[in-house]
Amino acid sequence: MRWVALALLVGVVGVVAGIPYVHNVDSGEGEVWAVLVAGSYSWMNYRHQADVCHAYQILHQHGVADDHIIVMMYDDIANSKENPHPGQIINRPGGPNVYPGVPKDYTGANVNLDNFLKVLKGDSEGLKGVGSGKVLKSGPNDRVFINLVDHGAPGLFALIGDILTTTNLTDAILSMHHNKQYKELTLYVESCESGSLFQKLPHDINVYAVSASNATESSYACYFEAELKTFLGDVFSIKWMEDTDRENVAKETLKKQYHVVESETKTSHVLQWGQISIDTEKVGAFVGSYKTGGDGGDVYGPFPPIADPCLKSSITSPDVPLALIQTHIQDSQGLIGSTFWHQEMDELKKNRTFVRDTMQKIIQQVTRDTEVTTRLMTDHHNVIFNHECYESSVMTFHNLCFNLGHNPYALRVVYALVNLCEHGYTAQEFTCSARAVCDFEPVIGIN
User: Fold this and answer.
1) How many angstroms separate the CA atoms of 299 and 92, rounded?
2) Exactly one of 151, 381, 398, 406 is catalytic; which is it?
3) Could you check whether the bond before residue 302 is cis, i.e. omega within 30 degrees of 0?
4) What's the pLDDT at 28?
5) What is the pLDDT of residues 39-95, one digit of tens each?
6) Which three-class secondary structure state does DSSP give residue 380?
7) What is the overall mean pLDDT for the chain?
8) Are 332 and 338 in contact (CB under 8 A)?
9) What's the CA gap between 56 and 103, in Å, rounded?
10) If both were cysteines, with which of 103, 141, 162, 220 could 314 make a disulfide (CB 3.0 to 4.6 Å apart)?
11) Given the residues 48, 53, 68, 192, the one annotated as active site
12) Which helix (H) or strand (E) holds 144?
């Protein structure tokens, strides 16, 4: 009962599902709040919801109360017809079920940009009658942890049928800062090109961020599971969560965790952003510090790189659909279903070609120069300077050509819009050309 005596010195003690938690009311130390978002859907993207469910279990086991954890996920995995174990989600082969107890705050179509921004801004009035209606109610003494997991692109993060831009995210954080919604805020983001989301983030507003990748590279999936025929996690997410499961988070600093994760994530460049001095804080300041790996948590790893089961099965996020269909082809050799999976592979490749050809046609119509078009379709700019042109062009492509939230592969070609804008072409020119080229019916599911 030692924890009770300590808790009485600083605040109000509660118990959720047998896990003690503390609401600090008079100590000035504040509380921990969290927003966890998986922005995708479908069995193919199993890993994103598995990552977020695991993150919830970490917060819960470390004593953060459910009314302080807001979860946004489509929730179509645990009871999917493709799941041979209904009600179960795992984040590594043979791992524990991370689904039980996860709050269903915003699911299905309620996982969208508008709701996410209202959650961050604490707009409970705007979310009346929507999902659980939970929003951040944090104040100037509180610490906030935000974990975003999904597909991404330069300056973009997908949210089901919507797109979160660098400007959206930065403006929301600045609003939170202005309204004194946090003492310190930490973001962990898992997506391709996730580093590009923080290139406008100020260094002096008590916000610390870690990205799974730099501004131009993919993040990686890992832990392929043969029975489920999908990937169970993402390398960066697995690394920070397995480290958190192992460590005493009341002692481990964010800086130490960053160096562990940066070292173990061999597949992409994990980077720090914002007010990096915050990394001297303990991990437990943002995920709760009651329960640690030493208290009987699910401890797994670490492993030497050559034997690391996550790294050994890792694959770039855009290659996941190809790998999963190829697995079905191999498993169906000589069976009736073989033809179906070969057709699925042909369809996937045809759709991807359609997306790339569409973007190339639009760029060609803008530049009227084949050589320039080829260069804009192949080069990758490290930094987005003309955000207004780029984000306007992205929204045009999203609205007129391919919904980027419903067609993840379309995210793989928007880097061409960075190039277009950085070479002096305008969003207006792109919009005119896109209207002429994108005269087809809306499509979804191009992975």
Assistant:
1) 12
2) 151
3) yes
4) 54
5) 999 999 999 999 999 999 999 999 999 999 999 999 999 999 999 999 999 999 999
6) coil
7) 92
8) yes
9) 9
10) 220
11) 192
12) strand 143-149
State the DSSP string of 6-61.
HHHHHEEEEEETTEEEEEESSSS---EEEEEEE---SGGGHHHHHHHHHHHHHHHH
pLDDT, tens digit (0-9, with 9 covering 90-100), for 129-141: 999 999 999 999 9
pLDDT score of 7:
33
Residue of 285, 241, 234 whose CA lies nearest to 260 = 241
pTM, two decimal places: 0.92
Burial (CB count <10 Å: 0-12, 13-18, 19+), residue 45:
buried
- Rounded to whole angstroms, the Cα distance separating 137 from 30 reads 12
For residue 359, give the DSSP letter.
Answer: H
Pairing of strands 19-24, 271-274: unpaired
pLDDT at 381: 77
Q: CA 447, CA 407: separation in Å to the nearest integer? A: 6
Region of 63 on the Ramachandran plot (φ > 0 left; ψ -120 to 50 alpha; else beta)? left
CB 110 within 8 A of CB 131: yes
The tens digit of pLDDT for each residue in 83-125 reads 999 999 999 999 999 999 999 999 999 999 999 999 999 999 9
The residue whose two tokens read 């130390």 is 29
| Residue indicated by tokens 């499961």 | 245
Rg of the chain over CA atoms, in angstroms? 22
Question: Which amino acid is it at 355?
Answer: V
> In the chain, which stretches have pLDDT less than 50?
1-27, 293-296
Residue 344, judged by CB atoms within 10 A of its CB (0-12, 13-18, 19+), counts as middle
Reply yes or no on whether 192 is catalytic: yes
- Beta carbons of 411 and 285 less than 8 angstroms apart: no
